[in-house]
Amino acid sequence: MAGVYSVTQINGYIKNMFAQDFALNRISIKGEVSNCKYHTSGHIYFTLKDKASSISAVMFAGSGKGLSFHLEDGQQIIAKGSVEVYERDGRYQLYAQEITKEGMGDLFERFIKLRNELEEMGMFSPEYKKEIPGYARRMGVVTAPTGAAIRDIMNISARRNPFVQLYLYPALVQGSGAAESIVKGIETLDQMGLDVLIVGRGGGSIEDLWAFNEEAVARAIFNCSVPVISAVGHETDVTIADYVADMRAPTPSAAAELAVFDYKQFKEQTESIRYTLKNHDGAKAGAVSFLCEPIWIKVKVL
Is residue 279 part of a domain? Predict the structure, then answer.
């Protein structure tokens, strides 16, 4: 049928239009780096944005070798390269060949300023870090009630020790009111006499994670009488909450691994001790076996 084209033909046509535009072939774009990811291949994927808009960008490994600094979220840069269409997906992006650093974005500047202020106050000092209990029985979690973070924590906790009691405070973790919600969650769970808290969420941009860079959240963690594990984002994400917490976990899954002891391993060790004591003194065996009979408990949402 005349005038009907395939998706491939249309994407190829648009790609060719971009390729013939001289301005797009040699262009410099200034903006703030966001969602920066270093791939194992050496390619760098990121978003370049200003206050009103954003554009996806990539710097291939060959060009990245000439980069004189580590690209990070919040940096203000000028990226030189070409805007082209990625034909397979039908989307355009900036292919950066050179990147120069112009300064830091507003959010990143605020992050550095607050980090330095709190560090000078001693809020990151090791002497204030509380020890994470080795055999926690009651664990609080401050995070969103939906999403990968709480699912991962619940799944790993159940696998490692189904007898640990979880208390979830369903907090806002992004956007307006998120910092206040997180603070309220920490303060509420702190009053319940729990053994340990996990405070965090899944990954995202510096904007998505910003609530965990607020001073109010940092102070709530610092003032919490219960040991706090910070579990914000992915391994490469770092927030103020990570610095002030008693322990930093690279992901929510890792936080659950650190907070919940392996009951199977614990039981095997206890049985070994009971066996040893039984052979040594049978009267002591019963006292040890009691440790192998914890009470069944459920997840509670506050």
Answer: no
CATH number at residue 98: 2.40.50.140
Distances (CA, A) of 260 to 73, 154, 217, 232, 267: 32, 11, 24, 18, 14
Question: What phi and psi, each to the nearest 5 degrees, are found at residue 166?
Answer: -105, 135
User: How far apart (Å, rounded) are the C-alpha atoms in residues 280 and 176?
Assistant: 63
* 97, 149: one domain: no
Q: Which residues are 59's β-sheet partners?
A: 44
Could you give the 3-state DSSP secondary structure of residue 249? coil
Distances (CA, A) of 195 to 156, 217, 236, 280, 291: 17, 20, 28, 34, 18
How many domains does one find in the chain?
A: 2
pLDDT digits (tens, 9 = 90+) for 203-239: 887 788 999 999 999 999 999 999 999 999 888 788 9
The pLDDT tens digits of the residues spanning 247-266 come to 999 999 999 999 999 888 77
243 is a domain residue = yes
Which pair of tokens denotes residue 213?
């860079």
The long-range contacts involving 206-210, CB below 8 angstroms and separated by at least 24 positions, are 206/34, 206/73, 206/74, 206/107, 206/108, 206/111, 207/34, 207/107, 208/174, 209/174, 209/233, 209/237, 209/239, 210/107, 210/174, 210/178
